[in-house]
């Protein structure tokens, strides 16, 4: 039998077996049984080496005095690797398993930003492209990790603290150690990341050492977004043995995803290209931006080289952590004449950049970002999507045809927070989802309506006008440009059997997408507004007969639709469209047709939403 006692501050428990709960050890004598365990707990770190101990006395049932004693001397040291696990903007020591990262409102886990902006304007590359901190502002984009140690300093004369990660995780994050004055860039030493997987931590600041962690890459097909860091206490006191690990603490970060913003949010900044003969268009956009109270950025002709399709070149999103949020431009693999604009003009302080390009030549028109949209927040099939769902276009399931290139698809799916919905767009010549759908805000519980192109609605509208005696009304009347434009009457449209037959086929393609959108976004017919639209065929693919929804955008309660051609200055003529009741607000919502062909050749602009 035996008795066991500890000095003050040492709690001792005995667990007789796996089946029985542990008990305090000082209540009685114990028999030596198979499976018995003695559990020692210290309540606070030691002040000195070996300042506590546990004593075990061995007894015989025939002798009143102990037969022998054993003493175990204890030194307690508290070692913790801490980070902001509860998304509170501070390093937390709350009791959660730091080795886990849990999604959801009740979840926990630290967040890491990809440091993909360029805070130092004297540098050409993004901040995470080298191993140096070039300006102190760069630290604001990093997550703080703190190593805390409490215990006698003499312990570390023959013990080491090693900060380490796996060679796999080292590819996705980089760690800097604050080794000197906080106001000096040179004080931040690169210690982990890429080819560095371990670091012996010197105790520059006694009980706390601060580290700054930056993400190097967004989640992707080969990267889940999780990165782990560990600190291990090694015993190096015995010269005859190699270092032996005593304790390891672990924290897990998740790299924050790239998040798209829906067009139903208020705009913050508008990007537009100035090309040949589009001064009027740029001036009109500038006036709209002024009324909406948002910034206007104009890409000059010498930079865009008459490539006006800025919405196809890039998509604007953001990244967010408890300590920092900043916008990130996603540069498409389209690579037209605008290919340098996102990197050279948008990348900067607190404005990040990301791109994905295939190794081969598999890029098609579907890889332009007119084929990349996002819905407002929705609930579908009992599941909430508070950030909405990404919409991309491709071909029908199981069929051959054009699809978004694999590297872009992999990137979008890997972000996880806006699970993509794939629509059928291969029937379109250009092949973009924004050619037949758009979202606008609505002042009700739903918060938005989806605008969907509808040849059926267009024919119905024309038939009504014909019935009212307006069949001779001309489309494109008074519209001129560099070339004469042929007019066509409502009667001619309604008597064109080929056009009607073709648009029935188009309507079936749109209806297929309609059902997918209703199912995947949780929409009802009340949430959808059919916009009159016709298409014509070119090389067995559909193109817009007149301006489609790809030329629509909404600012601060106003929805704009641009025409392909501008009317002559003396006789501006435009179509008027009845305002849908579902969109009525105190401020009028106007669907306004204004010109683009003579003014700009395109209405395409890109908007950074709040």
Automatic annotation (TrEMBL):
This is Peptidyl arginine deiminase 3. It comes from the Eukaryota. Belongs to the protein arginine deiminase family. It is found in: Cytoplasm. InterPro entries: Cupredoxin, PAD, PAD_C, PAD_central_sf, PAD_N, PAD_N_sf, Prot_Arg_deaminase_cen_dom. Pfam families: PAD, PAD_M, PAD_N. Residues 1-75 form the Protein-arginine deiminase (PAD) N-terminal domain. Transmembrane segments: none annotated. One of its GO terms (molecular function) is calcium ion binding. Keywords: Cytoplasm. One of its GO terms (cellular component) is cytoplasm. Residues 77-235 form the Protein-arginine deiminase (PAD) central domain. SUPFAM superfamilies: Cupredoxins, Pentein, Peptidylarginine deiminase Pad4, middle domain.
